[in-house]
Amino acid sequence: MSRQRERIIIVGGDAAGMSAASQVRRLRPDAEVVAFERTTHTSYALCGLPYLVAGLVDDPGKLVARTPDAHRRAGIDLRLRSEVIGIDLDRREVIVWDAEARREYREPFDRLVLATGARPRTLAVPGREAAGIFTLHSLDDALALAAWLQNERPRQAVVVGAGYVGIEVAEAFVTRGLPTTVLEAAPQVLTLLDPDMAELVERAMRDAGIDLRTSTPVEGFQTRGGRVVAVDTPHGSVPADVVVIGIGVEPNSELAGQAGIELGDRNAIHVDERCRTSVPGVWAAGDCADAYHRLLGRSVYFPLGTTANKQGRICGLDLAGRPARFPGIVGTAITRFGETEIARTGLSEREARAAGFEVAVGSVRSTTRSGYFPGATWMTVKIVADAGSGKLLGAQIVGGAGAGKRIDTVATALTAGMTLEEFIYLDLAYAPPFSPVWDPVVVAARKLAREV
Amino acid sequence: MSRQRERIIIVGGDAAGMSAASQVRRLRPDAEVVAFERTTHTSYALCGLPYLVAGLVDDPGKLVARTPDAHRRAGIDLRLRSEVIGIDLDRREVIVWDAEARREYREPFDRLVLATGARPRTLAVPGREAAGIFTLHSLDDALALAAWLQNERPRQAVVVGAGYVGIEVAEAFVTRGLPTTVLEAAPQVLTLLDPDMAELVERAMRDAGIDLRTSTPVEGFQTRGGRVVAVDTPHGSVPADVVVIGIGVEPNSELAGQAGIELGDRNAIHVDERCRTSVPGVWAAGDCADAYHRLLGRSVYFPLGTTANKQGRICGLDLAGRPARFPGIVGTAITRFGETEIARTGLSEREARAAGFEVAVGSVRSTTRSGYFPGATWMTVKIVADAGSGKLLGAQIVGGAGAGKRIDTVATALTAGMTLEEFIYLDLAYAPPFSPVWDPVVVAARKLAREV
To answer: Which of A329, B33, B393, B433 is the 20 to 30 Å CA partner of A254?
Structure first.
């Protein structure tokens, strides 16, 4: 047998997959890098889709960080409209469906990266297939929704689910002047926040004119001529000529599961700190994989674009023989509704209790800038700590411009394992246009430090 | 002898002194707390003065965090227009000049806190005493300057010094539409920044119409009828009918020095981590004291309002028998010039080299938000690390809205002693309105991590 170039196959052409592909391409010019993507898009900003719908981003092309052509020019053998439909671990081959040529073929690999992403959770209720009902999890989804808004000129929108995507879509509709009802099965929006913090978001949504109904599950869709006309709930029906369902995502891990690769939390592909799966020679990264949660001390499914990029980088480095260690996540997330910024990191009070911590919490309402400075707005910070050790466990922020990104200070402190006492003496930046003399995150921690 | 209440004397009624007074008042209701302040103001925001001059803050009262009356209601024996002019450590007494009653008296103490603050550095050149020449280091300074601007309607301003205060005053003058020249003796503005970063600030100042002249020391002031009319430099004279001198501050430490209390860096009162001076029973805090610099491993004079508040708190806790430990500073500072935010933490490249580190640096220009998101502006981040260990040493940021406070992430990481490799995998908040998927501070660190 003649010695061949090593062949690395990447399944999935978005953040994680193409980060891995780019890293290994750069560091291992000798290897062959083949990437399969079932759509015609690569490396685009999933998190930007609601803003495309809002019209704040005017050109879908702007969401594409790197085009297929750019990847090819970089030396990646990128195959679009090519879906990997099976993995044969014995023969070290993937089975590919080429939608263009309408044929199936096998491609051998030496090493394999699974970056198959996630898909929207389904809502199995009558009428779900009617026209006018959308999800928002791909560029094609966003284009379809934008076309519907443009062509059908809907007059009454319903958003099902008040998680991050639901809230961002609701903002998009409000921005477009479309009357909007948000239906959430849980008793609060954004269940990653504690109820007291979620309430601040709910108030902002209602103030913007949204008809927000919590504890209101969707039981079905009424249709006329195949088009949605209303949404049924236990408390009556809501007229709607456009609906977006955003009730979370689940990992595309069936390929891996069928091949016998170990799955973990919520069926995500379980990976170690080098993004290796349970099968030698197979890596996974991004929204199809789990990630180690530093505060919980176990791997969880918490799919986010930032983690996808980091895991992709780790994969690429590992494939290139330069192993790096992903130290894990702390559960940071951020979004906004209109002018209201919403951020969280670590564990919420509820999550911390569920994880068995003895919890102490402190909340403050403070200004984003010195109170006397023009543009100062209000923000609320909630800090969660371990009552015994005083160790920081998490924070949540809801507030005006400049509030949200302060969560990074807490995320960094959590990563370092700081106590409240260490946290309150951090040397944070102060000048009147930026902050009160004690930063609001510190004020919350100080309040708590007195009690712990 | 009958047992008396313990008497704690505080010298200085601003941030550090009144923080200490308030803490000990709250925690030790049994003690007598006496505070001497030589002006009639307490607890006001020194950092807000330039914005009062700019007219952005319309009422000086808004800068007062806590009035004398409020302190008195809290049970502090606050004596205004009362200057401590001597400390008699043998007899444990302070000597007070009561400017109201025009008399001197002695007041015994059991424990003493020196919070005498700082004063502007003087510029010993001819004409310095002319009318129209100001410094900006007290509420009275600001009111005097504002009155001059109001009554004399100057048409040509000169700011001497391009440190934080100089830049903020220049911004204030530009805001008021006053043609402004800034004269700086050093070859660059803001010597706490490296030249490459300072250049970005210089560009912003010039773009705003400021006549900025670096390497231009002031040799004297020309006067007419006792009023300033021009500023002399080696490169010619600059007409001026209002001048603000902002060339740094020096500690008010003479009282302490004369009493035999140890002074340190730049004659600041040397304190330990509990803010105790070299003399038992005497504490110091704020702009008259030094602070331990965690990266330099020694105490330095780096006077800032945030540190003053923290040291005041530490003092108060210690006096109340609840010793806390001030872990030190990392050299964080922030300001802005117009829309340009300017921040730094840790050591600059220059400072790190001077301290003997083998230095690696990385700079990037990135957007504050996802590049496609409305409102995204440019920011430049420079990261400094130890070339051998990869340990973070510092960062500098110059950029648009949202850029500056990102320094807190680095300040927190510095405090935790993180390496570049740890820093780049931090779980920082990402959504398109807030950040690119890799935060700019991380992009700079990634660039550097490849080189270290």
So the answer is: A329
